[in-house]
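ASSEMBLY PREDICTION REQUEST
Request ID: AP-0331
Submitted by: J.K., bench scientist
Number of chains: two
Total residues: 403
Priority: normal
Notes: Please return the full assembly, not individual chains.
Input sequences:
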Amino acid sequence: MESGDKVWEVFIQKKAGLPFKHAGSVHGYDKKMALQNARDLYTRRGEGRELWVVEASNIVAVPLDEADAFFDPADDKIYRHPTFYNIPDSVGHM
Amino acid sequence: MDKFEAAFNELIEKELKIEPRDWMPEKYREHLIRQVSQHAHSEVIGMQPEGNWLLRAPSLRSKQVLLAKIQDEAGHGLYLYSVAETLGISRQEMVQQLHEGKAKYSSIFNYPTLTWADMGAVGWLVDGAAITNQVSLQRTSYGPYSRGMVRICKEESFHQRQGYEIMMQMAFGTPEQKEMAQDALNRFWFPALMMFGPHDKDSAHSSQAMKWKIKIESNDHLRQKFIDHTVKQIEYLGLKSPDPNMKWNEATGHYDHSPFNWDEFWNVVNGNGPCNQERLDHHKKVHNDNKWVREAAAAYALKTETQVA
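STATUS: Completed
Returned structure:
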């Protein structure tokens, strides 16, 4: 990549109360430019009220070959779900 | 077959999406990089024929609208470069490949835009054909490409309507304006239809791309869909069909068309169209002229960003 040019991941909040959502990425040399470029690229039609940019190299992800083992502990704990428990209909909605 | 390949095949089979960090066959990655970079370059080079009319737009309104449209094209190019970057190629490499003639862009942009009616024909037919293709690509198997297409399709529909509005103004205007509208239609019709690519039986890359669900519908299928859809729009304008053999075929349920001039198509793809040299030279010139901006931005970032505690 050209010296100083960085890739930033862009997250947009559409309305207050909604979670930030990943929109894509943008190039920029510094934080301010990354924000302005993200605004021009992803919010030309009022798609956002808030923007985050994060340098792509700062995102930490689970390595692909570890993903199965990493998420495995969640698979066998059915007692974490409400349907695991039998509650009589007569007690009403619970 | 290892478990990663099996997982890939299962995702394709179930019409789920492949994401950047998933395992994928090298050929799948290469195909996508080629297709997406071609798509990105097309958006960016496509700004040139429209930019040609920016300073000569007939009203402030049409100038504003055209400027917004060109801005969108730049945005679409950037979305697509981002998509390709998730596959492990940098934007700089892609631009370099374009400059070296190793990467292509849609040959439609190698035709000149001679009159204001061409701005109508480009929006209506060229963007129209592109939309037909892009609507289908919303369902492509590569996640980031699919999401980019959804975003692009939302924005493109304004482009086609903007083009058709110009066609209406010209076709319903003075006899000279109507003649310009007819001329623009005549010149752009066949090149726009050839944008869908070679016939299915001659398309080298298509069949594997369909198996991987990178492409969902074939070139001929999409082209026919576009023709069938556009005929009544030509009629509404009161213009003559540019193809004397275009007529409704009761048996097939589609409009027939003349054979295409593929020699012309390949001639333009291979660099010999009316504007190939001009388009590429302009891109290179602007890229080089702006070098100082990139250098200044890098120097400024170095000075300001390193001071953060």
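REVIEWER COMMENTS: The beta strands of chain A are 6-13, 21-28, 50-55.
SIGN-OFF: pending second reviewer
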